[in-house]
Write a structure and sequence with these properties.
By secondary structure, the chain is an alpha+beta fold. Helices cover 27% and strands 35% of the residues.
Length: 404
């Protein structure tokens, strides 16, 4: 006899031209595999090729009562690996009598990112109370400092609360991203999902980027804008590395697209790797705006991506996540993976997902997306709660594993 107490998960996928139909098909695919018609939770990741509200309407027409959270992406991932052939919609359906879900949204990140994070978490906390065990967040970081959004969540939930998530993408356009909660599509918001109940969660966090050159000091910065490094305009770091001809292009095109495999790494307490910060844009004075802040006085290094190292650390991250389950069998995997990693791997982006699945199991239902930033505790620490320091990451793979 089947154990109805056990968590069940499945992942569906669809692509095509009609947004509503693609939403319907992806959700039906997930539910057919789940084997029950009334999932408790749907996680939806979609390309911005589709009309976002129509996608959601299609998904909801199949499972109107499930809690739903999701995001537009810079690429979708499912159990078969990165979705390559078409821009798609992927849906994870979860059924578990042991987990309760609570949702919240914080809008208007552009005005006050920290407050938006706090509001989303406050709404979740009001419903869940002390029972809250983990918080999954999906923020828009194109409109505000990602680290501040995380800070706002922790203002609400406490300094050492396990937070995991990924920042919405828009197929590498860096123009506008979307967040989903139940029936509604947002932009410029952070959506949050609180989990409570009798279940286990494991989190793995690694990037594998390698420091090059000498350590440098951020001599002038404000929030996410780094004005000066070693007393010179911040962009000089890239001009010195790429040469002046190449660096001229940095000022005329999106820095994010050119410097994505050469981010800045920042030394932080509690992490054996440097915390990555993505450079996004550069102004006429040579100041660089990053996806999250680099405080004045920080020690930074220029970093370079290595495919070999990135695969190796993805495996380590998966092992770390698995070890936190205390021997329980993984039932669902959610991956928040930086778009920079997709660009680094190119056609071989499946190698990284395969390395993760070698550890966790190739048949464990897996959903994920390529993000514009990730959220997770430094070092993936969730066991020793006093050392659980959730932070905003860039260019990192974050693996969240759920088990009974």
């Amino acid at each position: 006899m089947e154990n109805t107490k056990e968590m069940k998960a499945s992942v569906g996928m669809a692509y095509g031209d009609d947004s509503y139909t693609v939403g319907v098909n992806a959700c039906q695919d997930a539910i057919e595999q789940l084997g029950v018609k009334d999932p408790d939770l749907l996680i939806v990741f979609s390309s911005i090729k589709f009309d976002q509200q129509e996608i959601l309407n299609g998904v909801r027409s199949v499972a109107p009562d499930a809690v739903l959270i999701g995001s537009s992406t810079a690429g979708e991932i499912n159990t078969s690996g990165p979705v390559r052939l078409n821009q798609s919609v992927v849906v994870m359906a979860i059924k578990s009598p042991e987990i309760k879900y609570f949702t919240g949204v914080g809008e208007d990140i552009a005005t006050d990112p920290r407050l938006a994070g706090k509001i989303a978490a406050d709404k979740v906390k009001e419903q869940a109370g002390e029972a809250l065990k983990a918080f999954i967040m999906i923020p828009d970081v194109l409109v505000g400092n990602g680290a501040d959004i995380v800070r706002g969540v922790l203002d609400s939930l406490g300094a050492h609360f396990p937070v995991v998530g990924g920042a919405s993408g828009d197929d590498f356009r860096f123009k506008q991203t979307f967040q989903y909660l139940n029936d509604k599509v947002y932009s410029g918001a952070v959506v949050g999902l609180g989990l409570a109940g009798n279940f286990k969660i494991g989190i793995g966090v690694k990037h594998g980027w390698i420091p090059i050159g000498v350590p440098m000091k951020v001599t002038k910065s404000s929030g996410a804008v780094v004005h000066e490094i070693n007393g010179a305009p911040a962009v000089k770091v890239y001009e010195d590395y790429f040469g002046e001809e190449e660096a001229k292009v940095l000022r005329t095109e999106t820095l994010a697209k050119l410097a994505i495999t050469y981010p800045l790494g920042m030394r932080v307490a509690g992490s054996d790797e440097l915390l990555i910060r993505d450079p996004l844009t550069v102004d006429e004075k040579g100041s660089i705006t990053c996806a999250a802040e680099i405080p004045e006085g920080s020690e930074v290094r220029l970093m370079v991506g290595s495919r070999e190292e990135a695969v190796k650390v993805a495996k380590v991250a998966a092992e770390n996540a698995l070890s936190q389950l205390d021997g329980s069998t993984p039932k669902a995997v959610i991956i928040f993976n930086c778009i920079a990693r997709n660009k680094l791997f190119g056609e071989k982006s499946g190698d990284e997902i395969s390395a993760i699945q070698e550890v966790i199991g190739k048949d464990v239902p897996l959903i994920g997306f390529y993000t514009y930033g990730e959220q997770a505790p430094l070092g993936g620490e969730v066991k020793n709660i006093e050392k659980c320091n959730s932070a905003f990451h860039n260019e990192t793979v974050v693996i969240c594993v759920l088990a009974d």
